[in-house]
Known about the structure:
Blueprint: H1 7-22, H2 32-45, H3 47-52, H4 54-63
Helix pairs in contact: 1-2, 1-4
Amino acid sequence: MSEPITKEDFCLRFRRWMLERAGASFDDGSSIADYADDTAPTYWDDESMRDEGPEACVEADISYWGE
């Protein structure tokens, strides 16, 4: 059984995956890294989302962009 992920690791993986999937900036030039840093803790705070893992949370978040 693996060790539970820490908040720090969750947020780092969230940021890394979001940048890999979405690039460095939004169409308006704002930073995706800053967005990820602000957004990751909200997913961490939701235990059901945290259990899905940071990569799944990124995919869920990105799926709503542009709607």
